[in-house]
Structures are given as structure tokens and as C-alpha cells.
């Protein structure tokens, strides 16, 4: 396991039961996140992307929080106390996102703020053939993006997406002994500047997907990209979509975890759900192989439904999956997922997760 340490020294213990994520919990925050929140508009049931000058029709349309909000929601649904630092416009999209995150998903938004006159970033996702294409509008916010000025000193972990300008507050988190988890987003310029990887200096764990990892490391395979990244930090993970995920820690062997075999309805946000599950498992102190396994499980469960954050699994979803595995009785799968019996609510693990949250319906659920 990477040297993911508690804020004041000592190993991180399994996440304690969470009694809530709202303002009543003060600074008792498990994970602090900062980044850009998007309104995701997801069109589903498409045969493909439209050709120039043509129009195609979707059978489903929905709305969901996206971007770093997907990681926040996925963590909250696993029972962790989450604080998010992000900007929200004072438009209808901002209203919807603020309400959904704060009131429905119990994400602490005290480090976030509304920006008058600024348009909330919007992404349109076209889902087809178990993949998706996206179009995004995101104006530069006045005053720049949020940072770590509200970072709780006792947070048990923090998360951010790296960018060309770096995230200076991650260095402060590292100095406080807070484990730093990082990912990257898509580079629309196509330049993939290697300088982005300089921002890995304060990170304990880096979680890019294979396309991003290969682009930034100038390699041609996921394993070669992983090798390049592993020379920069203790623990590197590369998400390989339908091929699962690979990881290496402190110069150790490369571990691989196959993806969950599911019928994918919408892969939007699956990588963010993976990140959240890996963070949860890391704070629980699980071995690397188990962390990968739990992350591919949660991301695999998420693609069965439409809508990024709204498809993030709850403990009820995970329990239902485990029950199906036991009912099917395949020895290999029963052994593969046996650890779930210890971490599900009512299991024998000393640090069980909190109450099972209710799955919230994907806003504007697909209409047939």
C-alpha cells in the first residue's frame, strides 16, 4: 500500500460510520475536493454521432452533476463526509446543481460559492455503442477557479484534477499530511503538455485513464504509460475502460483487475466513480488489488444506468450485486467478491460504512 497516512501520523483506519455530510458535522470531513462542476446533459439511445448537416434522435435525455461533482457524489454515497470547493453560476444550471449536491446528495458546499453573471459549465454527452462523445462550454470564471483556502486540516484525503497551471494548494495538503489523490481531464487543445505531470509532485496517487496517461507520457501502451508514471510517484493507476485497470506501487509488480462484465448503458462519469471508490478503499487501508477490485466494481455498476453522478452506486446496489454473485454460485466470482461481506453494512469489518443512502433518480430520466 502507498504511504497514505492519517493527518497526524499513523496508518489510515477504515472509514468510520458517517452520520451525515452536511453543515452539522463541522470540520469532520473525510475528503476535500476542489475543481470544476458541470451540468451534464446526456443523450442516450443513439446509433452514433450525427454527421455534418444531419440530425439524429435520442430515445433518452437526462441531467446530472458532472466533473468533480461526480467524484463528490460517489464518495458521499459510500458514506464519507465530503466537502466540495467549486464555483456555480447564478443561472438555472447553477440552481439545479447546488440543490442536487447540497440538499439531495448531502455534499458540504461551504467552500463553494455562486458567481453572479457567470455561466455554469455545461457538457452535452452523446452516448452510443457503449461509448460517448462530449461537447462542453466552460467560460473562465472571474477570479480564477477555487483552491484549497477552505482545506480542513483534519481531512483524511483530498482530490483534484491536475492542469497546466498546477494546484498549489495540494502542496499544502501534503505538508499537513493529508493524502493527495489526483486525476486529469481531457485536453481539448490536443497538446497534452508534459508540464502537467510536474503537478504530480505533491500527489500520493494518480488515476488517469489510458488515453490520457499515454498522451502525457508520450507512450503507446497503457503499461508503458504506467511505467513512466510510476517513476514520478509512489502509486500510479491507469484506468483501461472495458479492459479493467492496472496499477503499480512503490516499484512493485504491475497488478491488473479485469472490468466488471455488464451491459453498459452510459459510460459517462465511470472514471470519476472509479476514482471515488479507489479513494474510499485507500482510506480503508485495503491492499492494492482489493482497491482496484472495488473501484472496477463501482465503475462497472455505474455504467448500467444513465447520468454520471446520478448513476454512482450506493451500498444497496453493491449489496444487491453481492447477493447475485452468491446466488449464481460461480466459485471464481464468489471468491473474487468475498471481501464485500466484510465491508457491507452489517458485515464484520471494524470500520463499516454508514447508513445505506437511497438511490436518487436520474433527473429527467430517459423517456422512451
What labels would you give this structure?
368 residues, alpha/beta, eight-stranded mixed sheet, 14 strands, 27% helix, globular, disordered N terminus
Describe the structure.
27% of the residues lie in helices and 19% in strands. With 368 residues, it is α/β, with parallel strands linked by helices. It has one domain: UDP-N-acetylmuramoyl-L-alanine:D-glutamate ligase (3-Layer(aba) Sandwich), CATH 3.40.1190. The protein has an 8-stranded mixed sheet with strand order 4-1-9-10-11-12-13-14, with helices on both faces. The chain has a 4-stranded mixed sheet with strand order 3-2-7-8. The termini are far apart. The N terminus and C terminus are likely disordered.
CATH superfamily: Ribokinase
- Run of helices and strands: EEEHEEHEEEEHEEHHEEEHHHHH
What is the annotated CATH architecture?
3-Layer(aba) Sandwich
Largest sheet data: 8 strands, mixed
Rg of Cα set: 19 Å
CATH class reads Alpha Beta
- Domain count: the total is 1
Short description:
27% of the residues lie in helices and 19% in strands. With 368 residues, the chain is of the alpha/beta class.
Write the layout of secondary structure elements.
Blueprint: E1 31-34, E2 37-44, E3 60-67, H1 68-77, E4 82-85, E5 87-89, H2 92-104, E6 113-115, E7 122-128, E8 131-137, E9 157-162, H3 169-175, E10 180-184, E11 205-206, H4 210-217, H5 222-230, E12 235-239, E13 245-249, E14 255-257, H6 270-283, H7 288-302, H8 315-328, H9 331-336, H10 340-343
Parallel strand pairs: 1-4, 1-9, 2-7, 5-6, 9-10, 10-11, 11-12
Antiparallel strand pairs: 2-3, 7-8, 12-13, 13-14
Helix pairs in contact: 1-6, 4-5, 6-7
